[in-house]
Amino acid sequence: YLPCPCAAPSPDADAAAADPGSALAGIRVGGWRSVASMYFFKHLRHEVLLTPECFGPRLKNVIRRKLSDEVEGTCIQGIGYVVCVMDVEDENIGKGLVEYETGNASFMVTYGAILFRPFDKEVLDATVTSVNQLGFFCKAGPLQIFVSRHNMPGDMREGFNAATDMWVSQDGVVEVKRGCVVRLRIMGLAMEAAKITAVGNISDDFLGVIELP
Questions:
Q1: pTM value?
Q2: I need a labelling partner for 121 at 20 to 30 A (CA). Which of 10, 66, 109, 165 fits?
């Protein structure tokens, strides 16, 4: 993924990439820091717990498969969503520790993953999932974004049509409805333990509906 040409890197992204101790430091894609496109690579650690019937000559393959099942699609607080596990080397699978009460064994695994993490002020495309009189919700991958009517262009702020569940501009040319794709700017983020939510804005230049359903 490459950053949208109209998306300026956010102050948060710049600060993270400039910090030598940051996991995002020095990462660039085609002259852009990879955080500008919200996708980046990072090594993480995760504990995998296996029951005795999983033990055998293909133990490490079982660990890799269970690791992917457990972490892909989840949100790690302060880091972002795990899109996919990229590599798990044999030497990065720790020795198992047996639980004497159950016979289960736990393995600490270091793995490389592609992560999805948005930043304030970034521009991205999202698909509208629902519309109501207060605004509309849309999704960009796992990220849910709410756009209030106050963050729409001036000629749309009173244009909600309850009969068709859409926002319509005064001239009737622009319609925001379920299934259309909008280009928006992130105005705020809330990072919780299991998800990231955001509020967006489509009132700036070059933002708004870019594809109809």
A1: 0.70
A2: 165
